[in-house]
Amino acid sequence: MDFLLKNRSEFFPSAPVVYMGVEKSFLDGMLRPLPSDVVGVPVEFDFSGTIEQALKWHPRSTRLVVVTGTSPPDREFERQVREITKRFEPQLVIEHLAGLPTPQVLKRLAELDSRSVIFTPGYFEDGDGRTSTPRAAVGEMAANAAAPVYGPFNTFIGAGIVGGRMPNFEAMGREAGGEVVGLINGTAPADLKLPATMPSTLNVDWRQVRRWGIADDMPPGTIVHFRTPTFWETYHTEAIIALALFLLQSALVAGLLFERRRRRGAEVSVDHHRFQLAHASRLAMAGELTASIAHEINQPLGAILSNVSAAEIILGRGTDGLEEVRQILGDIHRDNIRASEVVNRLRALLAKHEVHHDLVDLNESLADMMTILRGEAQRRRTTLTIRPAVPAVEVYADRIQVQQILLNLTLNAMDAVSDEADHRRTIVVTAERRDNRAAITVSDHGHGISQDHLARLFDSFFSTKRTGIGLGLSIVRTLVEAHGGRVWAANAPEGGAIFQVEFPLARQSSLEMPDTA
Amino acid sequence: MNAKPLVHIVDDDASLRIALTRLLNAAGFETMAYASTGEFLLSRVETRHGCLLLDVRLPNGPSGLDLHAALREQGVDLPAVFMTGHADVPSCVNAMKAGAVDFLEKPVKAEVLLEAIGRALAGDLVRRAARNEEMRLKILLASLSQRERQVFERVVAGKLNKQIADELGIAERTVKAQRAHMMEKLDAGSTAELGRIAERFSQMRDETTAK
What was the pLDDT predicted at A462? Predict the structure, then answer.
């Protein structure tokens, strides 16, 4: 700077000069004021601010140790520090280790207790005339000291000091750059608004802050060095995204679980209602069949009654007719079984049974249906014919519900032909195999189904009967579909309606027998 | 009269048919059992003393009521007892109107059944007796000569011998002789008895024309 000021008229005549990093005390010490076209912001090392900050962080301190050296700049620093530390005299013991040999200094620093704070600008030369850089000197001190070391220069950061208020060289550069831009744009050097000095900033070495147990809350604007960034600091965006995704996923999973639960609840409820409805429909069906069921039971009961009376008369005449009485007893037994079979079949149909899937031979179902409906067919003077499948077909189904499907469709057919002439009151129920399906066909010779009814036939509460409530076929469809099958209706070319039900076959392998028929 | 009364049983239920047969046999009747109306009609109908025991509802063909009506139409006048699985008022009324003796609800108790059968058979006997008397009268009347018949008709009409003689253009003495012949042939002891015979006969004629 000195050199430039002396020689600039020779090298750079009339070029304005912007300086930076020049200490204020240096400018203050100059005899002449700077020319007006030499501008810049002087630097002031903030000794007092550093000490104040140190005491703030170590409020229980009773001793301030100041280390200085012997070279002229060292002496200058010593002078400045002595000047500053005067105002801390009342609270603190100020101990100056000025111009001592390095070993002695280090020894003393190692002895300090925890209520001491060390401040040093470093030194270029110690009491033994050994030279070093201030940073190296500070490094030695910090390595040995038993108390935290503070210093005013940012070159010390990393050497082992806790920190200090230091000029911010980055801010300085920015300020000087601003001045250069201003000058190039033609602003007169004197018109530049310049701060008196560059403000100093608190710099700390995070490792030392940790080591000395200094509170984490740094004043605003503090520059923290060597802070090991936490995982959060390094990856917080990624972490937030990951967390958000995780939460979103969890929410989604929870939502789906809830939905599934709700759906299962709804399914259970639907199943329950279907079950109830099917049962109610069976009860209604039994109601329709009361007369023929009574007949079915009364026939064997009447036979039993007559047989018993006959036996009484025969026995009353003596022991001649014992053989006949034995026959009578056999017949009574048979009729008893016959009556109870009707009752059992009826009870099976009407009981609120648990749905139980099992192998069901459709031929057996046809035979059972015939037993239940024979009387009813007679009563209605309708010819009911069943054509079993050859060979037998089996489905995996609930026996009672298959029975219900058959009964419902057949009773429906009986209703359809009830107004027809005698020879047209015929119904044929067929079981057969169609590829990999088991089919039941119920055909009648009634009046058929009109086209606009065909589409709505299986809808709930659709009925063409005067007394129907329109649930029969809708229940049939519900039950068929619950078995993975389908049901549909059509008109036969020769007149009458054909209802068809198809179920998946149960065990296909057992049915792959060669068809010899 | 050698045979026991014959009961014709028509019921489609084999088990019940056999049981009824047993019971009626044990109770001292002869029986013939048929599974359907058709089966009954195909067999040669025995018209001797007996009755019908019919199930009202018979599958695959005419009902018991139809059978009863058809038999009466053919002049087979056996009394009928009906059995039914369920009390059906209209068919019950029809059956009684058609001359059914009884209408029994299944299952039928033996006492009730036997009582009904007994009543039917008694009815049959009465009917047969009446029919026999009728036949006898018909034969007796047929044995009269034309002139005797003319005299009979006028006597039962309450006319005097003189009037009859005038009407027929014959002597009163001739009328007297023919009247004596007629009364002998008809086995009538008095004019009053002759009147009863005439009355019965006219009833028969009325019944025939009513049919």
Answer: 65
Residue A478: in which H helix or E strand, if any?
helix A472-482
Binned at pLDDT 50, 70 and 90, residue A32 comes out as: low
B41 touches A at CB < 8 Å: no
Secondary structure of A72-141 in the HEC alphabet? HHHHHHHHHHHHHHHHHCCCCEEEEEECCCHHHHHHHHHHCCCCEEEECCCCCECCCCCECCHHHHHHHH
| B14 shares contact with chain A (CB less than 8 Å) | no
Are the C-beta atoms of residues B79 and B120 closer than 8 Å to each other? Answer: yes
Scanning every residue of chain B, which has its alpha carbon at the shortest distance from the alpha carbon of A295?
Answer: B85
Distance from CA of A298 to the nearest CA of B (A): 6
Q: Work out the burial of residue B72: count CB atoms within 10 Å of its CB; fewer than 13 is exposed, 13-18 middle, 19 or more buried.
A: middle
| Chain position carrying tokens 């009833």 | B203
Asked if A294 reaches chain B (Cβ–Cβ under 8 Å), the answer is yes
Residue entry with tokens 């009728």? B134
Given a cut of 60, is residue A418 above it in pLDDT?
Answer: yes
In single-letter form, the type of residue at position A262 comes to R
Element (H, E) at A348: helix A322-350
Instruction: Give the pTM.
Output: 0.52
The CA distance from A379 to the nearest CA of chain B, in Å, is 7
Assess contact for A505 and A395: CB atoms under 8 A.
yes
Which residue has better confidence, B100 or A389?
Answer: A389
